[in-house]
What we know:
The chain is α+β, with helices and mostly antiparallel strands and 421 residues long. 42% of the residues lie in helices and 16% in strands. A hairpin with a 3-residue loop joins β6 (124-127) and β7.
Amino acid sequence: xxxxxxxxxxxxxxxxxxxxxxxxxxxxxxxxxxxxxxxxxxxxxxxxxxxxxxxxxxxxxxxxxxxxxxxxxxxxxxxxxxxxxxxxxxxxxxxxxxxxxxxxxxxxxxxxxxxxxxxxxxxxxxxxxxxxxxxxxxxxxxxxxxxxxxxxxxxxxxxxxxxxxxxxxxxxxxxxxxxxxxxxxxxxxxxxxxxxxxxxxxxxxxxxxxxxxxxxxxxxxxxxxxxxxxxxxxxxxxxxxxxxxxxxxxxxxxxxxxxxxxxxxxxxxxxxxxxxxxxxxxxxxxxxxxxxxxxxxxxxxxxxxxxxxxxxxxxxxxxxxxxxxxxxxxxxxxxxxxxxxxxxxxxxxxxxxxxxxxxxxxxxxxxxxxxxxxxxxxxxxxxxxxxxxxxxxxxxxxxxxxxxxxxxxxxxxxxxxxxxx
Length: 421
Ligand SMILES: *[C@@H]1O[C@H](CO)[C@@H](O)[C@H](O)[C@H]1NC(C)=O
Ligand SMILES: *[C@@H]1O[C@H](CO)[C@@H](O)[C@H](O)[C@H]1NC(C)=O
Ligand SMILES: *[C@@H]1O[C@H](CO)[C@@H](O)[C@H](O)[C@H]1NC(C)=O
C-alpha cells in the first residue's frame, strides 16, 4: 500500500528535523546515516495494531521525531501528540550513570529506529544500554511501572582504563560514573555488602524524591579500603512517592539478584539503580546528569559551569545596560516632571499675583469703609441709605460745634455719637 502524500511529507519533515537536531553518524563507508539502535529488552503490544498512515501512526512519528530535539539536558522527555482517540504518550530517559555521548547516541538512534522493531504496535517499552524509550495510546505518566526490564551483572564489567569511551563529539574520553577503580568479581562479606548497599540506597532514594531531576548519587564506606557507590534515578514525571515506591522495590530485589556481586544495575521504564564497589578513594564524579551528589552537592561539571558563567555574564551585561537605560529614563522623567512643575508653579504664582493685583484696589476701599460701629457694612447699603448714614467732615464739624476740629488738631481720637432728628 502506498502511503498518502501528506504522510510522506511528514516523514520527510521528521527526518529533516532529526538530521538537523543532532549530528549524524559516520558509518564504515564514511556515509552519513542514522542507524537504528538495538535495545537489550523490548516489548511490543500485539493487540489493536494501528495501520500505516493512520492518524495514530502520524502522531507517533511526530512524537518520536520530536524527542531528540525536545529532550532536556539530562536526556529526559515526556510528551504527547495528537488529540483524544489518536493521542500518543511518549517518554524517553537516559540512564544517569552513562556519559553524555552515550546519552546522545541513544537520543539520536533509539526513537528513530523503534518503529522498525515494533511496526504496528500501539504500546512499546524498550530498554537500551543507556536509555529507555516508551510510548502508548494511554497516559502512563505519574505512575511508576515496577517491572524490572533488565538486570545487569557488572561484577566483571570492563574497566574504563582499558576501554575509555571516546566520543565522536568530544575530544576527551569521558569518565565513568564511579570515576576510579572498581572491584572486579565477588565480595566475601555478602552480609556487609547487603547492609551497606541498602543503607546507601535508602538514603539516595529519599534524595531522588526531593530533587526535580529525580537523580541521586552517593558513596558509603564498606571495608577499610572499599566503598559502595550507587546512583538512583526515576523518570521526572513521577511524584516523590511513586519514585520511592519504584526504587524501594528495586532495592529489595538486589540481595536476590546480586548477593555478592561487586557491581550491578536494575533497569526499568520508570526507575533505575546501579551500584559498584570502589577500591580507590572516591573521587568527584563529573557527569552532567548528577545534579544531586551526596559528596559534591551543588557542584556541576566545567562545561555546565562555563555555560552558567556565560549566562551570568550576559545577564550582568543586560542588567547593566538595563539599569543605565532605566536611570537615564528616570532622570529624563524627573527633569520633565520638575520643569512641568516649575512652569506650573510659575503660572500659578503669576495667576495668583494677577488676582491679588486685580482684587487689591476694591478690597482696600472696601476695608476702609466697610466697618461702622464695629459691624460689617456694605458699600451699596451706605450709598442707598438703607444702612447707617454717612456724614461729610463739614457736617460733623458743624454738628459738634467745632469740637471735632479741636480734636483733630490735637490728634485725639474722638468718638462721636448722637441722635439724628
Ligand atoms: C510530563 O509528566 C508530567 C507529570 O505527570 C505531566 O504533568 C506533564 O504534563 C507531562 N508532559 C507532557 C508534555 O505531557
Ligand atoms: C501487531 O504488530 C506486531 C508488531 O509490532 C505484530 O507482531 C503482531 O502480530 C501484530 N498483531 C496483529 C493482531 O496483527
Ligand atoms: C558469590 O556468588 C556466586 C553465585 O551465587 C557463588 O558461586 C560464589 O561462591 C559466591 N562467592 C562468595 C565469595 O560468596
